């Protein structure tokens, strides 16, 4: 076996993957079940908002011309003809000298063009009739939310490819989208390879470790917006692996294996890609961890051979599988946000290759700070729990110092803070 | 009805709510179903990591003393006695002059104390025996990942209250947590009140609007880590509302209503709290939007009366219900992250009250920038879709200018970017 592989720059590896991107499938789902999904249609305003002139306050609807010249010394009295609650309409157009008691959100009666808040009105009863008095003039349109003032009918409010968050859901409901077209979640099959792997419920035995990569990757798949299926762990036996992998291809958009991509005697994935006649897009990337990450393509379908080392596996997924999944769910911005940040601690290791260090982003006085979390070796699993970002340290350097500007790739948002005010 | 209510400072309102916080309930769930849940137990290293001395590379395990003095001009030859794949063990301790072919992740054979990578070794066969040759000396422990070097047995790796992300899942699997104790999702019941409300699948009719708050709040509840149940929309009728609300209390940790908390004729919630003998913690907060937000307490249970205005409802939930939910799922940092940011655009409106403006956080050259999105009125629903933060503008000011330092409360992380590299 040829042990030499030429490392490919990361950007080229991503390009080779994204050259295989294709339109994801779509489906209609009920508004109740669309949370967190990716829109496959633009959301349009199917009616103006508000759909009628409405009152922003509880008060009295008036004709502003009736209030001209009113002052503390020259108050005006109006006959209160009816009450309009939200969801109801006035029974008839208003006439000179009349007031309509109106509730927040209710439709402005025909003829009225302003609302006086309760707080500036006096009310009284006389001979079985209701009256209100006001001591100031109102302008036309004062305290009126005009029909269409927020949104005109037909306006595009959210573009396809956006994630359905609580605000988008409010829009769907407002505009009568009881069902909405979303992208189907891409189906991703996951195998863990390696005779050393035990199931999570098995006791440790000498020479073996528990399979953590499959559970981790399944959680990454879910976080990325896809649907993962665990297809089991495979011993390092060629026939077993070959049949398992080849038999799974038709059921999934992507197939991910962990382990078996290095140059060891039992690293079977290269041979499996060969027998499948899959085209290896790359089998070595100029990065740490995860340099052995391999991606192959067969009839437009991608097979990801991620490293068996937990951190390398994690990084390989986020760099190479995440953007493909995002692309399949129609996100026009499929890459993880990559921002500049201030390095919070020294990182003195020299970098022959670009390094993705597990880090934690925090914010201090308007600055973005990122610091490494835990030990940084490709086999290290414990640092992943605390990471919400990768620190990107380009290769060919002698290390970095606290205060240097670096790039960070954001993976998750911060979970919370102890005090209401900034800590 | 007394129209006057004294506005309470936001921090005091939050204090009154959090004085009612209590221990959430817990449950055991399988590792497959714990993603996104909140840990109710600390995660301990149940074994050292790695659990044995192991090889980080494919290569040959050697006794370092056998390699002393080896150079290009004075190479050493070793008898390759066997191959140890990951998951297997050497058949016997190594002796002087022997090498064991070893794969990444495999256990170091007894007697060996270093590994030579394939890349620096020559191999050959002679008389039916395998040999390897090496032209340099190795140090003791060179290329050995020592047992326990990453984590000692018994170490606490993740504290209760942490969210189970892909990294935490990897730890659960590594340490044999096939089941894990998590906090139960708090149960939150939601009513929308208002005769003006139509269902999402009903056509618009004059004076009415579709119910968007319930769908929005249910999505916020889900995002906050709780389980929401929509209990229906209620007309503005006292008996209907009273029986619906009082009948729901026993089934939920929190009950949220939208609408009906202002001082209008059909704002029934104050009267309902009174008849329930619930203690109103506050019914006016010094903030915009959402000043009418009301929270009442009955036998330790909280009833949230959120505004019927979409943006006010949204803000009220995030400020007052979110930290209570986080607290019920054991998060020791239950508040939304609140950070300093640079205002990206002018916001010239004077602020008598503290204002929570829907905004979008972005990152530019290591700085956090936050800009308002869309129109900012409490009734405005369309700006919520694009918001990933609130801009906190304290009251008593004449407005803010681009470049001012402001506070931002983070709601969501950014969705992505178009290019692999920073845009």
UniProtKB/TrEMBL annotation, chains A, B:
GO molecular function: metal ion binding; molybdopterin molybdotransferase activity
Pathway, per record: Cofactor biosynthesis; molybdopterin biosynthesis
SMART domains per record: MoCF_biosynth
Organism superkingdom: Bacteria
Single GO BP term: Mo-molybdopterin cofactor biosynthetic process
Cell membrane keyword on record: no
Enzyme category, top tier: transferase
EC number: 2.10.1.1
Alphabetically ordered keywords of this record: Magnesium, Metal-binding, Molybdenum, Molybdenum cofactor biosynthesis, Transferase
Protein family according to the UniProt entry: Belongs to the MoeA family.
Cited NCBIfam families: Glp_gephyrin, molyb_syn
Protein name: Molybdopterin molybdenumtransferase
Species for this entry: Halobacillus karajensis
Lineage of producing organism: Bacteria, Bacillati, Bacillota, Bacilli, Bacillales
């Amino acid at each position: 076996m040829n042990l030499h592989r030429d490392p490919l720059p990361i950007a080229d590896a991503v390009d080779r993957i994204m050259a295989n991107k294709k339109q994801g499938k779509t489906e209609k789902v009920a508004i109740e079940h669309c949370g967190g999904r990716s829109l496959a249609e633009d959301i349009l305003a199917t009616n103006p908002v508000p759909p009628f002139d409405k009152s922003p306050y509880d008060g009295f609807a008036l004709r502003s011309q009736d209030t001209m010249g009113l002052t503390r010394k020259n108050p005006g009295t109006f006959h209160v003809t009816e009450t309009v609650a939200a969801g109801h309409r006035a029974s008839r157009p208003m006439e000179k000298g009349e007031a309509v008691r109106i509730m927040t959100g209710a439709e402005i009666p025909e003829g009225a063009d302003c609302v006086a808040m309760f707080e500036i009105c006096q009310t009284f009863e006389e001979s079985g009739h209701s009256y209100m008095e006001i001591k100031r003039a109102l302008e036309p349109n004062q305290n009126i939310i005009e029909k269409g003032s927020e949104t005109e009918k037909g306006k595009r409010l959210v573009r396809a490819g956006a994630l359905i968050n609580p605000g988008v859901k409010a829009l769907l409901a407002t505009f009568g989208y009881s069902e909405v077209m979303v992208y189907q979640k891409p189906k991703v099959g996951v195998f863990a390879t390696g005779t050393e792997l035990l199931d999570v419920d098995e006791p440790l035995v000498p020479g073996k470790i528990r399979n953590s990569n499959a559970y981790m990757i399944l959680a990454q798949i879910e976080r990325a917006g896809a649907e993962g299926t665990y297809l089991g762990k495979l011993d390092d036996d060629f026939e077993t692996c070959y049949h398992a992998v080849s038999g799974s291809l038709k059921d999934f958009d992507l197939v991910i294996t962990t382990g078996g991509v290095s140059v060891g005697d039992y690293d079977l994935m290269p041979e499996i890609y060969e027998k499948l006649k899959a085209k290896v897009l790359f089998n070595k990337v100029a990065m740490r961890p995860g340099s052995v990450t391999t991606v192959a393509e067969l009839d437009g379908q991608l097979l990801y051979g991620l490293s068996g080392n937990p951190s390398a596996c994690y990084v390989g997924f986020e760099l190479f599988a995440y953007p493909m999944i995002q692309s399949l769910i129609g996100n026009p911005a499929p890459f993880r946000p990559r921002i500049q940040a201030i390095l919070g601690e020294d990182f003195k290791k020299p970098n022959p290759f670009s390094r993705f260090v597990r880090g934690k982003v925090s914010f201090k006085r308007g600055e973005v700070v990122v610091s490494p979390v835990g030990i940084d070796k490709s086999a290290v699993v414990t640092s992943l729990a605390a990471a919400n970002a990768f620190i990107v340290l380009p290769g060919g350097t002698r290390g970095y110092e606290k205060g240097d500007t670096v790039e960070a790739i954001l993976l998750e948002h911060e979970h919370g803070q102890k005090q209401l005010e900034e800590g």
